[in-house]
C-alpha cells in the first residue's frame, strides 16, 4: 500500500491473501467500514477491528468507479 491524498493505494496483492479475490493493483481504499483511512496506522487499526468483527467493508475507487467490497 502507498499513502495518497485519496486514501491507501494498492501496489500489489499477495496471491494467498484474503484480499486477493477482491482487490486489484491500482485500487484506492478510501475507508474501512466507514472510517477514512488516510494514514497507514489508521488503515491498520480499522483493518484489525474488522478482523475481530469477522469482516471489513472497503470503500474503493477502481479507475473512475467507486465500489464497496465486503471482505470476510
What descriptors fit this protein?
alpha+beta; single chain; 72 residues
Structure description:
- It is a single chain.
- By secondary structure, the chain is α+β, with helices and mostly antiparallel strands.
- Helix content is 19%, strand content 35%.
- The chain contains one helix and six strands; from the N terminus they run E-E-E-E-H-E-E.
- The protein has one helix at 40-53, and strands at 2-3, 8-9, 28-32, 35-36, 56-62, 65-71.
- Strands 1, 2, 3, 4, 5 and 6 form a six-stranded antiparallel sheet that branches.
- A hairpin with a 2-residue loop joins strand 3 (28-32) and strand 4 (35-36).
- The radius of gyration is 11 Å and the shape is globular.
- The mean pLDDT is 90.
Structural class, by secondary structure, is: alpha+beta
Query: Percentage of helical residues?
Result: 10-25%
Strands, count: 6
Low-confidence stretches: none
Average pLDDT value? 90
Strand content: 25-35%
- Tally of contiguous helical segments: 1
Largest sheet: number of strands, sense, barrel closure: 6 strands, antiparallel
Q: How far apart are the termini?
A: 19 Å
Radius of gyration: 11 Å
> What's the helix-strand series?
EEEEHEE
- Globular, elongated, flat, extended or rod-shaped: what is the shape? globular
Amino acid at each position: 500500500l502507498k499513502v495518497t491524498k485519496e486514501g491507501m493505494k494498492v501496489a500489489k496483492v499477495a496471491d494467498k491473501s484474503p484480499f486477493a479475490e477482491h482487490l486489484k493493483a491500482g485500487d484506492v481504499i478510501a475507508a474501512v467500514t466507514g472510517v477514512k483511512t488516510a494514514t497507514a496506522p489508521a488503515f491498520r487499526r480499522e483493518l484489525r477491528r474488522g478482523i475481530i468483527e469477522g469482516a471489513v467493508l472497503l470503500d474503493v475507487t477502481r479507475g473512475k468507479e467507486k465500489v464497496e467490497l465486503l471482505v470476510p
